[in-house]
Amino acid sequence: MRKIIQVRVYMGDKYYVAECLDLPVVTRWKTLDEVVENIKEAIELHLEGEDLGELDIPRDFSILVSLEVPSYVKA
């Protein structure tokens, strides 16, 4: 079973975009904190009422968020 649902976060034209790699869930928001909270809620809503065993997802799944940083950002 997959214990981790992967999410990619990147900066779109005006908003941060969170795109789930394992499920058909995408959202966007103005700040990183908001987009992360929003994608977690969207995943929960998407899975609500689904048979997680059929989807090969355990009830205690984790969400792994990968943040893409534009090349023009200097550390």
Spell out the blueprint of helices and strands:
Layout: E1 4-11, E2 16-20, E3 26-29, H1 32-47, E4 62-67
Features:
single chain, alpha+beta, 75 residues, Double Stranded RNA Binding Domain, 4-stranded mixed beta sheet, 4 strands, 21% helix, elongated
Describe the protein in words.
With 75 residues, this protein is of the alpha+beta class. The chain has one domain (4-67): Double Stranded RNA Binding Domain, CATH 3.30.160.250. Helices cover 21% and strands 31% of the residues. The protein has one helix at 32-47; strands at residues 4-11, 16-20, 26-29, 62-67. A four-stranded mixed sheet has the order 3-2-1-4, covered by helices on one side. β2 (16-20) and β3 (26-29) form a beta hairpin. The chain starts with a strand and ends in an 8-residue tail after the last strand. The model has no long low-confidence stretch (mean pLDDT 90).
